[in-house]
């Protein structure tokens, strides 16, 4: 009997890795959860923090779906960035709180990834004030972009729109979950068990296919752009 | 006050210019009956039916004995039956309300909305904040009775009352209300000598250009509701006067132990700070001045770094006649420089003049008397503050998030909070006292001196908008 029980337990343990269970979980169970507990896609970006050092070097992962999803659409986006690159870079410099920024085309999206200090709305507002009219040339190629340009006269809408297109950042605690389990259970922890992830994270991933996992790695955490520039003696 | 650009009679009073009445009573109301509340609003335009008439910014020959003004929360606009399309046109921060923005404002720990007393513990119930300004309590009582004559119209959730106990002085002992944005369309620059440019009207009114060249804030729809309106961050800010005075003493004692303190206060210079002051007492006043950026009597350090009483006295009118040149004597971390950096070099290069606010504040609670220390049950004292601007996000919140707290505007203060109003904690709080040579003494264990004890974001509609809201549903 003991042997039968062991085999049954082994069978149950392996169930989550079987194709049929993955299909049931992904296509049936999660949608049922979602229908019973509807969640909205969370707005993007990091939350403002009580800790001062957490409010610098914040990540923006702006994913903007192109209207024209063909190679021609991607080429138009590339051209819009190339034509305005100098103004955009000068504008980012003038905003004063931007560590890094780059533009990337991923599939059918034009993306802007940047690392900035302080409040998100202040960053975007200063960005609009500095180079909003230039950036409009990019936004007009994007789905829903027409409703928020010219950005200079749609400031509030533009900020909300960017916030909505910035990737939701799963909290650091959620991505640290497996590590926490290891800390408690040591080597016996089952660190690959999907069932241990919080249901609200699963539901968010259901409605929000693109997310940022945690707030990211920093080589020199807690320092603002201006602190770094001052330390290097290159003006701030 | 006459302007060709704006019809000042359409703007509620106390926005473009303060009333300067010594008493204020704020009535915090919930709409009881929407139809009656709308009729009440409509009646306030003319004062019909014995309802107090809303005070506009129209010039007066003789100052009225009472003034009466109205602020509406987002929930209040909704309760009054404002169309959903119109509600959707208000900015996100106003829609979400002050409590939802707590982290940005530094309302954490003891200041968190969960700790606020009634009626601010139920923010969604707060619909209308009526403000009555007068010289006498009897006048406040009379206007309150007139305003609330029909018990069905509103539920009175709470009252907050303030009193100017010593002119423009506040509980921490500073002369306040010195610096305000002035408007070219309204004020004569001759009357307000100040190198900081006059503010564009859009700093404080919706529908006009603001300090960001080319940018316009959205005017809520329809235009008769939004135009000439503005937003207000109403804040109840408790001030820990005992804690503040004690910290000054600790700081002075610490400085006395530091080599180089003579650069901060040369021996014999105590009399310049105040007659008969000891060395410790003089250092206390220097720290207080550096924290604020002004001596307690309002004289700016930028103009008079060594004494609050310069040989040639500075007239009241000249107290804003300074800037922050690179060699300014005003510490870069001081309260007035953090909240309004004027022309100083700051990190956010486009933001220098963009976060200015009209401030209408008045103390509440009993004045602090060091000769009669508070008992165990210390009374609450503080400031009833109104921070008014056409964009809560671009002005009030922008100032709180990155300047008052965090200190992003200058790498020399990044990681610290405003010494007077910041969300400090003894474990992490610090403030740099700056010497003439540029050296600094870092004061640590800086606690929080100002706690939030309530508040709400309100929309201050124009007189036309009040009439419009009164006509809804007809």
Describe the structure in your own words:
The complex is a heterodimer of chains A (236) and B (474). In chain A, a hairpin with a 2-residue loop joins strand 2 and strand 3 (109-116). Chain A has a 3-stranded antiparallel beta sheet. Chain A is of the alpha+beta class. Chain A has helices at residues 2-14, 19-36, 71-95, 120-139, 155-165, 172-175, 177-185, 199-207, 225-232; strands spanning 58-65, 98-106, 109-116, 168-170, 211-213. Helices cover 50% and strands 13% of the residues of chain A. Chain A is globular and about 75 Å long. Among the domains of chain A are: 52-166, Alpha-Beta Plaits (2-Layer Sandwich), CATH 3.30.70; 168-214, no CATH class. Chain B is globular and about 75 Å long. In chain B, the strands form 3 sheets. Chain B has a 4-stranded antiparallel beta sheet. In chain B, a hairpin with a 5-residue loop joins strand 9 and strand 10 (440-443). Chain B has helices at 34-46, 74-79, 84-87, 92-96, 102-105, 137-147, 223-226, 241-256, 261-264, 270-273, 279-292, 335-339, 392-404, 463-471; strands at residues 23-31, 66-72, 128-134, 154-163, 165-168, 230-239, 358-364, 382-389, 431-434, 440-443, 450-460. Chain B has 14 helices and 11 strands. Chain B has 474 residues and is α+β, with helices and mostly antiparallel strands. The chains are: A alpha+beta (236), B alpha+beta (474). Chains A and B meet through helix 4, helix 5 and helix 9 of A and helix 13 of B.
Named CATH architecture of the domain at 52-166 in chain A: 2-Layer Sandwich
Low-pLDDT runs of 5+ residues of chain A are: none
What fraction of residues of chain A sit in β-strands? Answer: 5-15%
The major β-sheet of chain B equals: 4 strands, antiparallel
Of all protein chain pairs, which has the greatest interface, and how many residues does each chain bring to it? A-B, 40 and 38 residues
Count helical runs of chain A.
9
The count of strands of chain B amounts to: 11
Helix fraction bin of chain B: 10-25%
User: Which of globular, elongated, flat, extended, rod-shaped describes the shape of chain A?
Assistant: globular
* Rg for CA atoms of chain B: 23 Å
Q: How large is the count of helical segments of chain B? A: 14
Global geometry of chain B:
globular
Strand arrangement across the biggest beta sheet of chain A: 1-3-2
Range of strand content of chain B: 15-25%
Largest sheet: spatial strand order of chain B: 2-3-1-4
* Overall mean confidence score, pLDDT of chain A: 89
Query: Which fold name corresponds to the CATH topology of the domain at 52-166 in chain A?
Result: Alpha-Beta Plaits
Helix content of chain A: 40-55%
Task: State the secondary-structure class of chain B.
Answer: alpha+beta
Q: What kind of sheet is the major sheet of chain A? A: 3 strands, antiparallel
Q: Tell me the radius of gyration of chain A.
A: 22 Å
């Amino acid at each position: 009997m003991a042997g039968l029980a062991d085999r049954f337990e082994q069978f149950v343990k392996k169930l989550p890795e079987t194709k049929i269970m993955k299909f049931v979980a992904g296509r049936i169970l999660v949608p049922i959860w979602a229908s019973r507990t509807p969640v909205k896609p969370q707005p993007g970006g990091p939350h403002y923090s009580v800790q001062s050092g957490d409010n610098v070097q914040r990540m923006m992962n702006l994913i903007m779906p192109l209207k024209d999803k063909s190679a021609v659409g991607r080429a138009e986006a590339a051209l819009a960035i190339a034509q305005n690159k100098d103004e955009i870079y000068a504008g980012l410099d003038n905003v004063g709180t931007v560590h890094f920024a780059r533009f990337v085309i991923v599939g059918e999206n034009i993306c802007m990834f940047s690392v900035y200090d302080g409040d998100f709305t202040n960053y975007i507002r200063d960005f609009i004030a500095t180079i909003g009219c230039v950036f409009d040339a990019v936004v007009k190629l994007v789905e829903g972009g027409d409703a928020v340009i010219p950005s200079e006269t749609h400031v509030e809408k533009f900020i909300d729109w960017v916030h909505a297109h910035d990737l939701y950042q799963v909290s650091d605690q959620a991505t640290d979950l497996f590590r926490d389990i290891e800390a408690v259970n040591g080597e016996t922890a089952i660190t690959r068990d999907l069932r241990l992830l919080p249901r609200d994270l699963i539901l968010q991933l259901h409605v929000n296919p693109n997310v940022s996992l945690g707030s990211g790695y920093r080589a020199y955490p807690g320092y603002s752009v201006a602190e770094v520039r001052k330390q290097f003696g290159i003006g701030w | 006050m006459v302007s060709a650009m704006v019809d000042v009679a359409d703007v509620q009073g106390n926005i473009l210019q303060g009333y300067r009445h010594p008493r204020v009573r704020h009535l915090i109301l919930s709409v009881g009956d929407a139809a009656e509340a709308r009729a009440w609003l409509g009646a306030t335009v003319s004062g019909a039916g014995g309802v107090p008439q809303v005070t506009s910014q129209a010039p007066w020959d003789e100052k009225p004995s009472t003034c009466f003004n109205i602020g509406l929360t987002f929930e209040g606009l909704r309760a009054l039956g404002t169309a959903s399309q119109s509600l959707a046109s208000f900015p996100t921060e106003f829609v979400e309300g002050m409590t939802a923005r707590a982290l940005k404002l530094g309302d954490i720990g003891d200041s968190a909305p969960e700790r606020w007393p009634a009626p601010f513990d139920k923010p969604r119930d707060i619909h209308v904040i009526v403000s009555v300004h007068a010289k006498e309590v009897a006048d406040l009582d009379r206007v309150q009775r007139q305003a609330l004559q029909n018990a069905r119209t509103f539920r009175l959730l709470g009252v907050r009352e303030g009193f100017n106990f010593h002119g423009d002085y506040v509980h921490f002992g500073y002369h306040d209300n010195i610096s305000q944005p002035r408007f070219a369309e309204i004020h004569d620059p001759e009357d307000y000598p100040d190198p900081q440019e006059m503010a564009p009207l859009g700093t404080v009114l919706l529908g006009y250009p603001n300090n960001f060249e080319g940018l316009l804030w959205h005017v809520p729809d329809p235009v008769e509701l939004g135009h000439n309106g503005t937003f207000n961050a109403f804040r109840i800010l408790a001030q820990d006067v005992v804690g503040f005075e004690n910290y000054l003493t600790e700081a002075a004692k610490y400085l006395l132990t530091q080599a180089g303190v003579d650069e901060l206060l040369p021996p014999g210079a105590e009399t310049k700070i105040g007659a008969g002051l000891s060395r410790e007492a003089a250092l206390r006043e220097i720290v207080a001045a550096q924290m604020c950026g002004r001596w307690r009597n309002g004289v700016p350090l930028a103009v008079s770094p060594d004494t609050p009483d310069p040989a040639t006295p500075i007239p009241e009118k000249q107290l804003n006649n300074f800037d922050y040149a690179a060699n300014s004597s005003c510490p870069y971390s001081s309260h007035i420089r953090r909240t309004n950096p004027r022309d100083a070099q700051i990190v956010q290069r486009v933001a220098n003049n963009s976060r200015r606010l009209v401030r209408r504040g008045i103390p509440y609670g009993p004045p602090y008397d060091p000769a009669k220390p508070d008992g165990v049950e210390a009374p609450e004292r503080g400031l009833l503050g109104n921070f008014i601007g056409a964009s809560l996000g671009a002005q009030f919140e922008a100032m709180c998030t990155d300047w008052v707290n965090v200190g992003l505007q200058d790498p020399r203060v990044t990681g610290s909070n405003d010494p007077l109003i910041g969300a400090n904690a003894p474990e992490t709080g610090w403030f740099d006292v700056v010497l003439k040579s540029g050296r600094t003494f870092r004061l640590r264990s800086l606690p929080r001196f100002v706690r939030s004890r309530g508040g709400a974001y309100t929309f201050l509609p124009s007189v036309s908008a009040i009439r419009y809201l009164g006509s809804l549903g007809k």
